[in-house]
Structures are given as C-alpha cells and as structure tokens.
Amino acid sequence: MAPRSIFLLSSSRVHGYEFLEHAKEHLKEFLSKRKVKTVLFIPYAQSDYNKYTELVENTLKPWGYKVEGIHAKSNPIQAVLQAEALFVGGGNTFVLLKALYDANLIPIIRERVLQKGIPYIGSSAGTNVATLSIHTTNDMPVTFPPSFEALRLVPFNINPHYLDPDATTCHKGETRDERINEFIEYHKKQVLGLREGTALLVEGDIATLIGDRNAKLFLPNKEQAEFAPNSDMSFLLNKT
C-alpha cells in the first residue's frame, strides 16, 4: 500500500488572487514531488465541463502540467486507472457526488488514492467528497446522489469556505457554527472548518494545515479549537 497524497483546498478562488494562484507554490511542490506531468481533471460539480476544464488547463499549463478532462474520455473508469493525478473541482457537491456514483467512480478513486497513492487534489466540492460524507457542505441539494457517503479518503468531515459568526450583523438566522454543531449532535463526527485561503495537506499519516489563516475544528461534546497555519493535524487521521 502506497502512502496517500491528498491536497484539500477550501476553494480555488481567494480575494485578491487569480484562480488557484493563492496555492500555486504548494500545488506545484505537491505535484512535482510526485513527478506528475499530467493531471486528470474531474469537472462534474459544474454544468459546463469544457469551460471548467479549460480554466484549469489555462492555469496549470503555464506551471508545466498537462490537463485532461475526464468527460472527454470514452471510459472514465479506465481514465482514473491510468491517471497520474486527480483534481476534483468545485461547484455543487450534490451534483458532483451523484455524477461520481453514476459513473461508478467512487470505489475506483478510493482504491487508487488509498492503495496506490495516486495524488488527489480537491477544491470546495472536490474537498467535500474526499471526506466521510457531504453532510457538511454549504450547497443546496439540487439533485440527490444515492448516498451522502463520499470517498472517505480521510476519516472526518470538512466544511470548506468556513465563515465565522459576525457579531455585528443584524441577521438572526442560523450561523455556520450552529449548522455544523447540528451535524455533530446527530453524527458525533469531527468537522474541520477550512477558511478561505487554507488547505489540508495529507502525506501518508501526516496532515498539515496550509495557508495564511487559522482553521477551526469542531468536536463532539468539546469546545471548538483553533489551529494556526502549519499546524500538525495528523491526529485527525486517527479513526478512533
């Protein structure tokens, strides 16, 4: 079994940066360290596969990487089996997970990443589906996958685009914290809130917080905990 190589971004876009630019050096190091030359992009979370793939290609090509869209392949399963690296993009998490189930890609991706060590990059929805389930997505259920269970590449949940409660607002609706805690009340699972500009890098049994701001960890029956950039988050990989 090869060590897993997973890079989970909160988002591809951050204010003040071009697409993926905020994570450019980390992504280049992640791919070059694993001698990746071609990335298989999975655009299923959005409706215009060609447009989304072109955006990723225009971004990664100047960095020295070729991008191929899985939708252009005659056999998606074979494409994953032959891929040097996978990049699952953002959009609607429910749409993405349903497409992965419909194409029978869930067990194939899981085996390739966890058993063969194929690098996996996820952003937003692509990060959501890398976790235990998509219960902690911010997206609306515009369609229904056969299950909320996701790829389970890591043994916890993530909330990408995490936003702190605004003490100055007049809005009296639920905060992000309240909704995450509702999930924890029923499922008793850890949830990592990834703020914009942050990512989680998993290399084997080592997990590290990447970015320029803290992440917030929600725990069953415990106070929330803040973790600074470059924190060792490896304890999250312990299934117990």
How do the helices and strands line up, and which of them pair or pack?
Layout: E1 5-9, H1 24-33, E2 38-42, H2 49-60, E3 66-69, H3 76-82, E4 86-88, H4 93-102, H5 106-114, E5 120-123, H6 125-128, E6 157-159, H7 176-187, E7 191-194, E8 198-203, E9 206-211, E10 215-218, E11 225-227
Parallel strand pairs: 1-5, 2-3, 2-4, 4-5, 6-7
Antiparallel strand pairs: 1-8, 7-10, 8-9, 10-11
Protein name: dipeptidase E
Keywords: Cytoplasm, Dipeptidase, Hydrolase, Protease, Serine protease
Subcellular location: Cytoplasm
Question: How does this structure look, described?
Answer:
The structure is a single chain. This protein is of the alpha/beta class and 240 residues long. The chain is built from 7 helices and 11 strands. It has one domain: Class I glutamine amidotransferase (GATase) domain (Rossmann fold). The longest helix is centred in the first third of the chain and has 12 residues, at 49-60. The chain has helices spanning 24-33, 49-60, 76-82, 93-102, 106-114, 125-128, 176-187; strands at 5-9, 38-42, 66-69, 86-88, 120-123, 157-159, 191-194, 198-203, 206-211, 215-218, 225-227. Strands 3-2-4-5-1-8-9 form a 7-stranded mixed beta sheet. Helix 2 (49-60) links the parallel strand 2 (38-42) and strand 3 (66-69). The two termini are 21 Å apart. The chain is globular and about 50 Å long.
CATH class: Alpha Beta
Helix content: 25-40%
Note the main sheet.
7 strands, mixed
Number of domains: 1
Output the structural class: alpha/beta
User: What is the CATH T-level topology?
Assistant: Rossmann fold
Radius of gyration: 17 Å
Which outline best applies? globular
Beta-strand percentage range: 15-25%
Write out the strand line-up for the largest beta sheet, numbering strands in chain order. Answer: 3-2-4-5-1-8-9
CATH H-level superfamily title: Class I glutamine amidotransferase (GATase) domain
- The average pLDDT is 96
The CATH architecture name reads 3-Layer(aba) Sandwich
Q: What is the terminal-to-terminal distance?
A: 21 Å
Number of strands: 11
